[in-house]
Specification:
By secondary structure, this protein is of the alpha/beta class. It folds into 2 domains: 6-127 and 272-331, Medium-chain alcohol dehydrogenases, catalytic domain (Quinone Oxidoreductase, Chain A, domain 1), CATH 3.90.180; 131-268, Rossmann fold (3-Layer(aba) Sandwich). It is 28% helix and 27% strand. The chain has helices at 47-53, 128-141, 158-169, 181-189, 203-210, 227-233, 256-262, 276-295, 312-321, and strands at residues 6-12, 21-27, 35-44, 71-79, 91-95, 104-108, 112-114, 149-152, 173-178, 194-197, 216-221, 235-243, 265-268, 303-308, 327-331. The protein is globular and about 65 Å long. The structure holds NADP nicotinamide-adenine-dinucleotide phosphate. NADP nicotinamide-adenine-dinucleotide phosphate binds at residues 46-48, 129, 133, 154, 156-159, 178-179, 183, 222-223, 244-245, 247-248, 269-271, 319, 322.
Length: 332
C-alpha cells in the first residue's frame, strides 16, 4: 500500500485553553527499528492530555511535546527493522508516549496489542491507557484479592469505569464515588455494588457503613489533596491506597498514627514514564489475562462521545466539563 507523505495531526501550539489545539499538516512518521506504523482509526482522550495542554504535566524527556495522544487503535501499515510480532494489515491498539492525535503514529511494537474480542476498531482506541493503568495499579501494585472491598474514586471516569468492571470480574466487592446520580447509575451499571454521590453524602461514612465499620482494603484514587486524610480513616487493616492522579492537589496532611496502627500502604505510579520493556510486559499481561474478559462480557468499552480529529478542541472542552462518562474518542 502506497503511504501518503503528509498527514493531519493536532498540535498543541501554545500552553492554554482548548483553542490551542490546532489541526496541522505533518510528514507521516517513518517507523524506526522495532517500531510499527499505525494508520489511526481512533485515538483516546485522557485527562493527562488536558494537563499537558495546560502546562501542568511533568513530561518524560523522550515524549513528544507538540502532538498529544497516549493511546490509539488502527491498522499496521509499515514495519520498522526488526518488528515481527505484527504484520502489515493487522488491526491493533497501542499504548503511546504521545502523538496519537494524528492520522498515523509510529509506536514501539511491544506497546501494540491485538484488538480485544468483540470490540470494534474505533472502541479499541480508548482501551490501552485505561486498562494498562488499572491493571498495574489495582492488581499489580494494589494486589486486589478475591473477596476484598475495593473503592474506585472518580468511578465514572475512563479509569474509574474500567477499574469497577475489572475489580468486579476479579471477585471483589466494589464501591465507587461520582459527582452526580446519573454518574452513580453508570458506576452501578458497570458493576459497582454501591455508588456514592459525593455531593450528596460523605464517602467515608458510606464506606464504613457498607463494610460494617471495617473499612476498605484497596482504594484507587485520582483526587489526592484533602481526600488523603479522609481515605485513611476509611481503610481497613493492611489497606492500600494507590494514587494515579492528583486532581485535588499534590499536598496533604496525613495522620501517620493511623497509618502505623492499621499497617496501611500509601503508594502510586505513573505509566507514561515507564520503559518500553515495562510497558510491553503490561501489554502482554493484558492480552493474556484481561482480553478473555471481553469475550465473556465481564468488561466492555464505555464510549461517551466520538469527535472528528479536527474537533479535538471541542473534545477537550467536554473532558474539562467532566460531563462525560467513560471515554471520549477522536476519529481521523
Ligand atoms: N498514573 C497514571 O499512570 C495514570 C494514567 C492514566 C490516568 N491517570 C489519571 O487518572 C485520572 C482519571 O483519568 P481519566 O482520563 O480517566 O479522566 P476523566 O475521564 O477525565 O475523569 C476524571 C473524573 O474525575 C472526577 N473528578 C474528581 N475530582 C475532580 C477534580 N478536582 N477535577 C476534575 N475532575 C474531578 C470527575 O468526575 P466527577 O464529576 O464524578 O467528579 C471526572 O469526570 C486522572 O487524574 C489522570 O491523570 C493516571
Amino acid at each position: 500500500m502506497a503511504l501518503p507523505q503528509s498527514m493531519t495531526a493536532i498540535e498543541i501550539t501554545a500552553i492554554g485553553g482548548p483553542e490551542v489545539l490546532v489541526p496541522v499538516t505533518r510528514a507521516v512518521p517513518v517507523p524506526g527499528p522495532g517500531e510499527v506504523l499505525i494508520k489511526v482509526a481512533a485515538a483516546g482522550l485522557n485527562r493527562a492530555d488536558v494537563l499537558q495542554r495546560t502546562g501542568l504535566y511533568p513530561m518524560p524527556p523522550n515524549a513528544p511535546t507538540d502532538i498529544p495522544g497516549l493511546e490509539a487503535s488502527g491498522v499496521v501499515v509499515a514495519l520498522g527493522a526488526g518488528a515481527s510480532r505484527f504484520a502489515v494489515g493487522d488491526a491493533v491498539c497501542a499504548l503511546l508516549i504521545g502523538g496519537g492525535y494524528a492520522e498515523f503514529v509510529a509506536v514501539p511494537e511491544p506497546q501494540c496489542m491485538a484488538i480485544p474480542p468483540g470490540v470494534t476498531l474505533v472502541e479499541a482506541g480508548g482501551i490501552p491507557e485505561t486498562y494498562c493503568t488499572v491493571w498495574t495499579n489495582v492488581f499489580d501494585r494494589g494486589r486486589l484479592a478475591v473477596g476484598e472491598v475495593f473503592l474506585a474514586q472518580g468511578g465514572s471516569s475512563g479509569i474509574g469505569i474500567t477499574a469497577i468492571q475489572l475489580a468486579k470480574a476479579h471477585g471483589a466487592r466494589v464501591l465507587a464515588t461520582a459527582g452526580s446520580d446519573v454518574k452513580c447509575a453508570a458506576c452501578v451499571a458497570s458493576g459497582a455494588d454501591r455508588a456514592i454521590n459525593y455531593n450528596a453524602e460523605d464517602f467515608v461514612a458510606a464506606t464504613l457503613e457498607f463494610t460494617g465499620g471495617r473499612g476498605v482494603d484497596l482504594i484507587l484514587d485520582m483526587v489526592a489533596g484533602s481526600y488523603i486524610a479522609r481515605q485513611i480513616t476509611a481503610m481497613a487493616r493492611n489497606g492500600r491506597l494507590v494514587l494515579v492522579g492528583l486532581m485535588g492537589g499534590a499536598s496533604a496532611e496525613v495522620d501517620f498514627a493511623t497509618v502505623v496502627a492499621r499497617g496501611l500502604y500509601l503508594t502510586g505510579s505513573s505509566l507514561r514514564s515507564r520503559s518500553i520493556a515495562e510497558k510491553g510486559e503490561i501489554c502482554r499481561t493484558l492480552e493474556a489475562r484481561i482480553w478473555p474478559l471481553f469475550a465473556s462480557r465481564q468488561t466492555w468499552p464505555v464510549v461517551h462521545q466520538v469527535f472528528p480529529l479536527r474537533e479535538a478542541a471541542a473534545a477537550h472542552r467536554l473532558m474539562e466539563s467532566s460531563a462525560h462518562i467513560g471515554k471520549i474518542l477522536l476519529v481521523p
